[in-house]
Amino acid sequence: MDNSTLQGLGTVFAMAAFIGVVIWAYSSHKKKDFDEAAQLPFADEDEHETSDEQHKDARSNKQ
């Protein structure tokens, strides 16, 4: 095999992998998982706000 054949096979493999990932990402059976993952940044906002308030209260009690 010469170099150009290996490059061609590498290109075909990369294209097949890309198409596989696109099909997997846009398949309907993964929609629920992706919807849940999309909401993760908003899941702990209340906990974060509460812990910030607790830190402020703790600092003010030390003074």
In words, what does this structure look like?
- This protein is mainly alpha-helical.
- The protein has one domain (3-62).
- The chain contains 4 helices and no strands.
The percent range for strand residues is: under 5%
Low-pLDDT runs: none
| Number of extended strands | 0
Shape category: elongated
Domain module tally: 1
Figure out the total of helices: 4
Mean of all residue-level pLDDT scores? 83
N- and C-termini, Cα separation = 76 Å
Class computed from helices, strands and strand pairing: mainly alpha
List keywords for this structure.
63 residues, mainly alpha, 0% strand
Give a quick summary of the entry.
This is Cytochrome c oxidase cbb3-type subunit 4. This protein has 63 residues and is mainly α.
Any chance you could write out the topology, listing elements then pairs?
Elements: H1 3-25, H2 31-38, H3 40-43, H4 45-62
